[in-house]
Amino acid sequence: MNLPNLLTLLRIFFVPLLVAALLADGTWFARLPELFSREMFALAVFLAAAATDLLDGWLARRWGQVTTVGTLLDPIADKLLISAALISLVDIHRVPAWIVILIIGREFAVSGLRSIAASSGYTIKASDLGKTKMASQVIAISLVIAGIRWQALDQLGVIGMWAVMLFALVSAADYFRKFWRRIDDGVKQRRRRELLRMERQRKRAERLRRVPSPVADFTDQG
Q1: Tens digits of per-residue pLDDT, 202-216?
Q2: Alpha-carbon distance 55 to 47, whole Å?
């Protein structure tokens, strides 16, 4: 297990800690100094987990340690972190549930499309909008968490969540377009191959009909 993969696993282990911090009643945190309030602790955990997302990919590419396990775990860790944060924020009434449903539903839909495409031998690469999605989600969720303590940031958090939702919908539409185009191209190629095969069979049958039968020639001579 290399360091990039360990950082990815660490991001997964941060998830229950983040949920506990966001959903805690604050009794335990009340004993600590004001700097270590529940919201600040949750924000620190979330930012630390998000930082591992940047660090593990950078280290894997720099050290040449890109592995199949890391490639599979990294998007799972990202989805777990973002989904856990959003669902927890819905539970404490900081984010509308319908926005979270759209964002998480988009993740399932795009993952399903990419899996179907991969099973058919196609690879749908991440779009530019998809690449900026994680950064926009981290910024928006951080603003929402910070807005629990500083009301001045609450409105910025709401705007950020709307921006994340729009990013999610637009990037999902882009993935659907790529998926449909690849499937449509695949169907056209299969039909073209079938037509060519049928044409070759027809020409072969015609050549066979033109070749005189040896039995018929022998009968004529007799």
Answers
A1: 777 777 777 665 555
A2: 12
